[in-house]
What we know:
2 domains; alpha/beta; 10 helices; Leucine-rich repeat, LRR (right-handed beta-alpha superhelix)
Amino acid sequence: MHITQLNRECLLHIFSFLDKNSRKNLAKTCYKLLEVFQDPLLWSLLNFHSPVELKKDNFLLGPALKHLAICWYSERVKVCNTEDWMKNSFQKDFCKRHENTVSDFLLDVCNRCPNLLSLTLSGCGHVTDDCILQLLKNCPNLKSLKLENCVQITDHTLQAVTLHGASLQTLHVDFCRNITQAGLEIVREKRPSIMLRAERSASMIPDSKPGKKLMLEKASRKLVQL
Length: 226
């Protein structure tokens, strides 16, 4: 029996064991398998390990997506988490090319994946508070938010969690150096049911860009007033 003689349910089951690239390669073999590849039900989980993967057409975004992870550990990507004043011109140019890659992708997730349950971001140096705010607003069922070494995340994200993370059960902000102890305490006070973890975050040296310290202080004061 040829694989194309199997019914759609069997084909979806076979596809579910394959990674993104293997699914795409199999879909190229015939039109019937391409239709299976394009079935939204197949795409409930996505894992990305490279900026290039976000730009390929080897995945689909849709209401079926429940679990998303973007974890970048390569040495080149780690440069994006380094403070600007420490980067050479080559590194700055490299980071500039990555600047909107994840944010634009997550904006698509906001618009297309309202049933998202878990989001993990690691090493995504250009993800901002506003991006996380939009996700919390557009994905009301989000139960787990895990952020690691996302250097632009500040107490504004913690504020968004207290205001819009009604379904949130787990929050990790490990190695996010612009998170403060005051912000963490407000989350513990206003959302005590959340399993909060912030390894090294509040004990790290925050970015020293002009105005950054003032911005963080204002964010912390705003949290205290809520």
